[in-house]
Amino acid sequence: MMNEPTHTVTRYDQELERLRGIVARMGGLVERQTAQAIAAVVDQNEEAAREPPRLDAEVDMLEREAEQLAIRILALRAPMAVDLRQIVAVLKMSGDLERIGDYASSIARRALKVEQLEGALSFSALRAMGRLVQENLHKAVEAMVENDATRAKEVWNADTEVDEIYTSMFRELVTYMMEDPRNIGPCIHLLFMAKNLERIGDHATNIAERIYYAVTGDMLPAERPRGGDAAKIIPG
Amino acid sequence: MMNEPTHTVTRYDQELERLRGIVARMGGLVERQTAQAIAAVVDQNEEAAREPPRLDAEVDMLEREAEQLAIRILALRAPMAVDLRQIVAVLKMSGDLERIGDYASSIARRALKVEQLEGALSFSALRAMGRLVQENLHKAVEAMVENDATRAKEVWNADTEVDEIYTSMFRELVTYMMEDPRNIGPCIHLLFMAKNLERIGDHATNIAERIYYAVTGDMLPAERPRGGDAAKIIPG
């Protein structure tokens, strides 16, 4: 790029900036989807329940836009080193973000089917788990927008706590189901919602791993710290 | 590339070939993981249950290898048009394949916790669903290796049937849980296993969509045909 006139370099920078802007917008949208999905459940808010699926189309569109712009930049600018690593990271992260949106929509679609257990502890567990996952997702999106490896590593470490709440919530739900068959329906929804939240946390962790690699060139260890295994506590 | 000496073009082709080889190997591995996971459940085969988690490390390694080789090709060869679109598709598909491996491992880890229901219909439903998902996954991997848009579209259409079996299996499992609380534990495992299989089918569909786009330059419609909605049949 050294011999090219300045305006080309500037346009290249603008394109990279636009690409980052697209994933930042995706990040903001899936954060909103996640927040609304949780509000839909714990506040039994119908309006909140409608929003995540509604936003899905926009997230999908942005993912395609990011991909096409990335291809364009790769074709026309032949970026090197850090830029190239970041473009590849963006391509991968947009996939994670799209999945997060899917999980949030899936939670929202179940949200209004669980009113029976409204008084139960599971709602506060879901709220706590939701808060943590949202926090992690927010940090992951920030780390992504600011190329912040330190923050990325924080997200990567914090997911343990999500696992722990998930495991204890799982235990509680299984107990409810055993106690009264009328709880089975709503509990299945809650189990899947908790699972979806846990997956959102996983994808936030994936994003954190990719940012860490894109910024530092080093990989975080393949195995991240984990907190509990819900599958182990189901009665056999 | 027209003015470059032949040996460079050849090396470039070799690198692209190597990249395709890596995802083809990933495809083969996750097919094997899926097959073993299903065998682990329906035949209650301990050895089969150990294999999918064991292969995970290899799949992860191949994903990283694919990413690094893709970056290398992008940096050194500045590929254009179809090649470029295919490299981007490979980057995205390796993520789908890695996820499929995760889901298969998750099924395998639950496989030996469900013996109580061995005589129940759910096992044959899981077997049928497993067979279909494997078939679709195999076709998706073939389409990927051979850049076959027609086959890709077949996969994309066939996922409806997976949804249908999933929905009816879901209904059956909920009934078992209602009938006898002792069924709750194993049924939860089966619900999650069925869900994981359904997700594997989804990722096979994603792969098909990407191949179709990489080969033709056209996108398949955002909404694929669907068969039933399991969430709707849970008693409220």
Automatic annotation (TrEMBL), chains A, B:
InterPro entries documented for this protein? PhoU (IPR028366), PhoU-like_sf (IPR038078), PhoU_dom (IPR026022)
**Gene Ontology annotations for the cellular component aspect, listed alphabetically:** cytoplasm
Record field: transmembrane: none
Q: Where in the cell is it found?
A: Cytoplasm
* Major subcellular site: cytoplasm
Q: Alphabetically, which GO biological process terms does the record hold?
A: intracellular phosphate ion homeostasis; negative regulation of phosphate metabolic process; phosphate ion transport
Asked if the record carries the keyword Transport, the reply is yes
Q: Where is the PhoU domain?
A: 23-110, 126-211
Sorted UniProt keywords? Cytoplasm, Phosphate transport, Transport
Matching PANTHER family: PHOSPHATE-SPECIFIC TRANSPORT SYSTEM ACCESSORY PROTEIN PHOU
Q: Give the family this protein belongs to, as stated in its UniProt record.
A: Belongs to the PhoU family.
Tell me which NCBIfam families the record gives: phoU_full (TIGR02135)
Briefly, what is this protein's role?
A: Plays a role in the regulation of phosphate uptake.
Can you say what this protein is called? Answer: Phosphate-specific transport system accessory protein PhoU
